[in-house]
Design goal:
single chain, 97 residues
Amino acid sequence: MDKDRIKGKAEEIKGKVKEKAGEWTGNKETEAEGLLDQAKGKARNTVGKVKDAGRDAMDKINEKPRPEIKKEEIRREVRDDGTTEEVVKREKDEEAA
């Protein structure tokens, strides 16, 4: 879980407390500050969710096995009767593993 999600949730709770305190005391300014803090917290929480989703996507990409890459060597060999033949030699690429 991203730290922005945690901080965002804390800010939402703080805003809710401020809003209720403003309602109970009749202080419209404190109530408005509470609503603003809640909005900031929700926005920060959303940023954290996006970061988490990006990290999860990258983890999935990195989990996929890479296809095996093979090296190929093609050479011409001359037979005893003077004709030529293409010979293909394939080896597993050790660097790709």
